[in-house]
Structures are given as C-alpha cells and as structure tokens.
Amino acid sequence: MSNNVITRFAPSPTGFLHIGGVRTALFSFLFARKNKGVFALRIEDTDKVRSKNEWTDALINDLEWLGLKHDVFVRQSDKADIHKAYIKKLIDSGHAYVSKEKVVEEGQRDEVIRFKNPNKKVVITDLIRGEVTVDTTDLGDFVIARSIGEPVYHLAVVIDDFEMGITHVIRAEEHLSNTPRQILIQEAIGAPRPIYAHLPLVLAEDRSKLSKRKHGETVSLTYYRNKGYLPEAILNFVALIGWNPGTDQEIFALDELIEVFDLSKVQKGGAIFNVQKLDWTNKQYIEKMSLENFVAAAKDFIPAGTSPKLFPLLKEKASKFSDIVELLEGELSFVNPLAAYPKESLKWKQEKDLETTKRHLKTVIEKLSQLEDFSKESVKAVLWPIAESAGKGNVLWPMRYALSGREKSPDPFSISEILGKEETLKRLTFAHDLL
RNA sequence: GGCCCUAUCGUCUAUCGGCUAGGACAUCGCCUUUUCAAGGCGGUAAGCAGGGUUCGACUCCCUGUAGGGUCACCA
Predict the structure, then answer these.
(1) Distances in whole angstroms, Cα of residue A398 to Cα of each of A48, A365, A391
(2) Which helix (DSSP H) or strand (DSSP E) does residue A133 occupy?
(3) ipTM of the complex
(4) How far apart are CA A7 and CA A170, in angstroms?
(5) How many angstroms separate the CA of A407 from the C1' of B1?
(6) What percent of chain A has pLDDT over 90?
(7) What tens digit of pLDDT does each residue of A71-114 get?
(8) Residue A150 pLDDT exceeds 80
(9) Which bases along strand B come within 7 Å of a protein CB atom?
(10) Quick count: other Cβ atoms within 10 Å of Cβ A26?
C-alpha cells in the first residue's frame, strides 16, 4: 500500500453532523489509518450566510467524541487569498470569465464568474463504482465564484484538495454527479486527479436520503449521543452500513476496523439505517463493560439517589443509557413504595387458590425472619428447597409479586437483598395479610 | 424530465459461473426459568422481470421495471 495517503472529511458548518456524515468521516479515517496516511478535517464554510461557528464547534466536538482524530485541520475561509489567486489565474488563462447576469431572484448578483466549459466527455474512475462516463456539455458554463473573492463549493473543493495534497476523495454518492465539473476545474488549474470513492447513501426508513427537513433530529449524531449510545457502538454499527469484511464478525473495536477495512468491499447500493441493530450493537458493548465503567459512563443518566445496588440490574437490562430512567420507573421501581395491587395478582397461574398462596407466603416469612445474612445467595439457599418441593412458581411468584408489585421484575432473591430484611418482611407480611 | 448510480430474506449483508443461496438484526417457536431480560436450540423469510451468453447463471451482457442521487450565485 502507498505510504502517502491523505484523506479528508469536509463537512460544511451549516447544521449538525448526521449519521451519513459519521459514516463518511469514519471511512475516510479508516482508509487513512489503514494506509498509515493522514486524515484531514476541512470545514467548508464558503457559504458565509449559512455557516456558523457553533456548527463548526459542534462538528469538531462530535468527531472528537467518536474518537475520529484528525491529523490536519483546515478552515476553508482561511484560504481566501489562495482561492482568490486561483480565480484570477483562471480568468487570466481564459478558463473562466466574468459574466453579466440577469437578476431574477433576490440576492442574486448581476455579475458572477463562470467556468468556460470545454464540453467534453469525462471518465471518472471510482474505487467503488468503476468507470463512470459523463458528458459535461450538459453542465454549461457553470458558476465557480460569486465574485473574485468568493469561490463557490466546486472551486474551493478542487483548490483545497490540490493544496492539501489529498490523494483519496472519499465522500457520499450524492457528490458523484458533481465530480465531472470538479475534474474540469482540476484540469484547468493543472491539479492531479485524486482517486475517488463514492460511498452509497445512508437511507432513512423510506429509502430517501437522510435529511433534517424530512426526517428531523433522529438523523443527527447528537440525538444518539443524548440517548446515551456509546461512541464505539455507533462507529461499529455505522461501519457495517454499506460495508462488511466478508466474515461473520459483527463486533469490531476501532483498531480492528482499521485492520480489516477495505474500500473495495464497500457496497454500491444505498442502505437503510436500522435502529434495532444499533440497539443490539450498543447492548453488546454495555455487556462487555465492567460495572464501574458502566456507572461512570452512564452517570448523567442515573438519577441522584439511585441505590448502587440497582447498578448491576441497570447494566444488565439497558441497551442504551436512556433506558435507565424507564427501567427505574418500570421494572426496577420496586425500590419505591409499592402501589396498591389486587390480591389475586399474588396467585401463581398454576396455583389452586389464594389460601395455598397465603400458606406459601407464611412459610417464606417464617424462614426469612430467622435469616441473618440477607444476601441474595443466602435468601435463595433457605427458600430454594421449599420452592422445589412445593412448586417453584407457587412459592416464588407470590413472593416476587409481593416484593415488586409487578408482573415483571428481577428475581425475588435479588429484590430481597436490595430491599433488606425489614422492608422485605414488611412487604411479605402486607401481602400475607391481604389474603 | 435530462444525466448518473443502484437492485439477494422486513433490515444490514455473504456469494467474485457450480447454491441444498450462508450470517447478523428483527420476528416466531422450543428449552432454561417464579416473571422479565439474558442465554441455548430451532423455524419462517430473498436472488425485480424478460431476453441472451454458457454444459451450467444470483453471479456476465442487453432491455424493461423499480428505487435513489443530481441538475443552485448550498455544500
């Protein structure tokens, strides 16, 4: 592999980083790292009206959070002088000209700079799509600058890629149609042509391109950050949209991705972003975490005052951190005072009647009253023989229901330990007296 | 509409002419189990259509169809 690969991720600071952008950034990053090359981040802020510093900051912050560290940083607006010089050169050499325009819309200029289109066929060699031939005649003399000092995207991209020595342009497929005009500009300024790789689009459920207008915030990385997904999991999941190494492996650390990544294995067709798989992937990562790491990572999602005894259960059941609140209000709400429940709920489905249920509860109360060590192991040890002889559901269901007041909850032994002897016996007695 | 790209289970995909079409998510069933989750086992589920090429096409070619992208003084 070549030793001097330089890739770039070039977002415009006009909005949040969306999932498709994350994938583009990741692939550019992976390809650079894989080839021991350089990964550059370039902020494309030539649109002064729509570009905002806040978006730039957010972009940098998001990428850093993901762990996609760039080696080079360029702000396009800092290159204004260089752009201007090229525009002049292009005009002087006859490749571009100042064009008088008829103003039909507000904000339009009566004078812009257009590229003199040589009207030829361009053959793009794309790493993913092979050869694509386009006749540029259809493009006409397109605009390359609003004025001598204001280049338009296509011009700025070509100049910057050239100046930065970009060897591989890895970007989304939506840019494939733009490539011919960029190639024309390259030829005019005498820049070498980089190697192109146009990634298939990341699609929404309805198979259309992800967009804020149409699909709302759920396409933004921020949305998933706020929901408490892990950056490693997002990267892992996104890597597998439109690419896979050809093996059955599903979970990859970033280092592993770098090792096995291969642009030629990238898919050609667009792929739908599937949240269920993201959830599953994220859960895999949570399972691999130590309890300490889980608690530390999830600290912003765990309400103050939550009993540390619940932490293992939270880790076991949450597939993303935002699940924690739901869990605490639902399945794990037994730590709060119990709401009233119908006494029939205490009866196991295979149990004869409430009388028997009451008897089982009494036995449980008697056994636990004498118990000193209230660890779940210890509680289980004294009750298990009884449960086995009387029927596990017959004994354990009423006990669990009495302790949790719910159809779904952790096992009664864990609840006992968390509640402690006093509260456990209080709830059991309450249930017993109810019957 | 012009130009361009694409087309395997619901979804993400493997297959680079030999396929009883494999895996993962989701889904369903069973086991485990006091419930839920997790886990284990198993099931349902796919080659857009029509022509070629070939001994043999999911794989190659053509046409059609469908979907997407792009046609800005946005990137």
Answers:
(1) 67, 12, 12
(2) strand A130-135
(3) 0.94
(4) 7
(5) 60
(6) 88
(7) 999 999 999 999 999 999 999 999 999 999 888 888 788 999 99
(8) yes
(9) 2-8, 10-15, 23-26, 33-38, 67-75
(10) 26
Do residues A5 and A47 make contact, with C-beta atoms less than 8 angstroms apart? no
Q: Which amino acid, residue A281?
A: T
- Three-point CA angle A334, A340, A346, nearest 5°: 75
Q: What DSSP designation does A243 have?
A: B
- Nearest-angstrom CA–CA distance, A215 and A212: 5
Is residue A133 exposed (0-12), middle (13-18) or buried (19+ Cβ within 10 Å)? exposed
Q: How far in angstroms lies nucleotide B64's C1' from the CA of residue A200? A: 24
Shortest-distance nucleotide from A272 CA to C1': B11
Nearest to A301 by CA among A276, A334, A325, A275: A325
* Residues A198-209: tens digit of each pLDDT: 999 999 888 888
Q: Is pLDDT above 90 for A47?
A: no
A36 phi, psi to nearest 5 deg: 55, 35
Q: How many CB atoms lie within 10 A of CB A138?
A: 9
CA of A242 to C1' of B50 (A): 29
Closest nucleotide (C1' vs CA) to A395 is: B34
pLDDT in tens, A367-420: 999 999 999 999 999 999 999 988 899 999 999 999 999 999 999 999 999 999
* Spatial separation of the C-alpha atoms in residues A78 and A254, rounded to whole Å: 32
- SS3 assignment for A335-372: HCCCCCCCHHHHCCCCCCCHHHHHHHHHHHHHHHHCCC
Exposed e or buried b for every residue in A240-257, given b needs 16+ CB within 10 A?
A: bbbbbbeeeeeebebeeb
Distance A250 CA to B12 C1' (A): 11
Provide the CA A276 to C1' B35 distance, Å, integer: 24
* Furthest C-alpha separation in chain A: 100
Q: Tell me: pLDDT of A1 over 50.
A: no
Does residue A394 contact residue A351 with C-beta atoms inside 8 Å?
yes
Instruction: Provide CB contacts within 8 A for A225, sequence distance 6+.
Output: A62, A65
3-state helix, strand, coil in chain A (%, to 5): 50, 15, 35
Nearest residue to B14, CA vs C1'? A246
